[in-house]
Amino acid sequence: MIKKEFEVKKAKKLLDVLVDNSFSYSVAQKMLRNKDVRLNGKVCKENVKTELGDIVTCYFKEDVKPYEIIYEDNDCVIVNKYSGIEVENGLDKLLKAYPVHRLDRNTEGLLILAKTVDAKKKLEKAFKNHLIRKFYLTEVVGRFETNKLYTAYLVKDSENSLVKIFPNEVKNSVKIETKIRTLKSNSESSLLEVEIIGGKTHQIRAHLAFLNHAIIGDGKYGKREDLKRFKEKKQKLFAYKLIFGDVGIDGLNNKEFQILPKWLQGVTLS
């Protein structure tokens, strides 16, 4: 077992403090259940609120990592990010690399980080010029047969940690574009491929909920009755494919990377 000790820099719930210190949410929960966390020297198994200056000590196995490396060279690293870890002040610290785009804490899948300042600038420019395309797989509630680009307007509600979607431009809104293609569909649920143009906080989750097809397992934007019916503990959203144009990095130029989530292993995508 490895021992890690750190001081609380901002008063938060204990699980959030552990996540801020590079543990995935699921690993943090497991450590609490197993009584592997101490708060100011006392064993703690509840998600209590911490105070500034508290000392947290935890014990974990060396092989616990919240990611899997898919590709790596001197310029960048592409990982399969697991659920429960933030990209900024989390995964970036573990990998000692610069994030050039992000995934929500509970969204899994392909994520690219730059290992040098020069690569960071090139990748950020490539994203801005739409030379990197991001594709997701998701299973949503209900029958949804479509193949089109949806446009809407997003307003960020920082106080409640969510976003709101509107059909027309409103005050403080930003335009979003979400391309959705149905892969499989029945009366219960639909499997979709989603490509976002640009990408804003919670864009896919909120936009699909706005279209009355919330992601299965999404506790923030889904309906309570659907959460009870499908009984999924994790949202079924996965960043499964990255397509690169000429981004100025030899290892990535005109390359494509693709992986499937565990819940779709063995499934042929049309």
Short structural description:
This protein is an alpha+beta fold and 270 residues long. The protein has helices at 14-20, 25-33, 87-95, 117-128, 203-210, 224-230; strands spanning 2-7, 37-39, 42-43, 55-60, 67-72, 76-81, 98-99, 108-114, 132-141, 147-157, 162-166, 174-185, 189-197, 237-244, 256-258. It is 19% helix and 36% strand.
Verbal overview:
This protein has 270 residues and is an alpha+beta fold. Among the domains are: 2-60, Structural Genomics Hypothetical 15.5 Kd Protein In mrcA-pckA Intergenic Region, Chain A; 136-238, Pseudouridine synthase (2-Layer Sandwich). Helices cover 19% and strands 36% of the residues. The protein is built from six helices and 15 strands. The model has no long low-confidence stretch (mean pLDDT 91).
Give me the secondary-structure topology:
Elements lengths: L1 E6 L6 H7 L4 H9 L3 E3 L2 E2 L11 E6 L6 E6 L3 E6 L5 H9 L2 E2 L8 E7 L2 H12 L3 E10 L5 E11 L4 E5 L7 E12 L3 E9 L5 H8 L13 H7 L6 E8 L11 E3 L12
Parallel strand pairs: 8-14
Antiparallel strand pairs: 1-4, 2-3, 2-4, 5-6, 6-8, 7-8, 9-13, 9-14, 10-11, 10-12, 12-13, 14-15
CATH C-level name of the domain at 136-238: Alpha Beta
Radius of gyration from CA coordinates: 20 Å
CATH superfamily of the domain at 136-238: Pseudouridine synthase
> Globular, elongated, flat, extended or rod-shaped: what is the shape?
globular
Summing up helix and strand content along with how strands pair, one would put the structural category as alpha+beta
Task: Outline the low-pLDDT stretches.
Answer: none
Helix content: 10-25%
The SSE string, one letter per element, is: EHHEEEEEHEEHEEEEEHHEE
Strand content: 35-45%
Tell me how many strands there are.
15
C-alpha end-to-end distance: 45 Å
Please name the CATH architecture of the domain at 136-238: 2-Layer Sandwich
Count of helical stretches:
6
> Which fold name is given in CATH as the topology of the domain at 136-238?
Pseudouridine synthase
Look at the structure and give the mean pLDDT. 91
Largest sheet: 11 strands, mixed
